[in-house]
Amino acid sequence: MEVDVAGESAFVLGEDVDELMAARPTSAVRLLPGHDQWVIGPGTKDAHVVPPTRRTPITRKANLVVAGGVVRGTWLAKAGDIEVTWFGENGKPPLNDVTEEVGRLSAFLDRPLKMTIKIG
Asked: What is the mean pLDDT of the chain?
């Protein structure tokens, strides 16, 4: 079935339309590994997902910071440290959301992680 998404045509299964129409935007931040299928699926050329000016580091298997459904930065883990690089064109990073996601990763790894954020 053809639907309009922010002025662009898209196709979805008819059985999924109601669920998609009920979905609401989120500001959730997620730390994804390099070559994650959420990004690779539509392709790094999809400007809805990867800003064109940031395509090169994303295609080089950078770990990804996704916020609001768009790649907004990268992250790197070294020992007990997590360094988040927030793309400067996105304004200030949502510190609480980034901190919460690093906390989730820390719990998953069952070890404390020291977070630093830089604007890149």
From this structure: 89
Residues 6+ apart with CB under 8 A from 25: 68, 69
For the chain, the C-alpha Rg in angstroms (whole number) is: 16
pLDDT in tens, 19-73: 988 988 888 999 999 888 877 777 777 887 888 888 887 877 889 999 988 889 9
pLDDT(101) > 90? yes
Q: State how far the Cα of 2 lies from the Cα of 48, in Å rounded to an integer.
A: 18
Task: Give the span between the Cα atoms of 52 and 45, in whole angstroms.
Answer: 7
The set of residues, in sequence order, having a beta carbon less than 8 Å from that of 77 and lying 6+ positions away, is 63, 83, 113
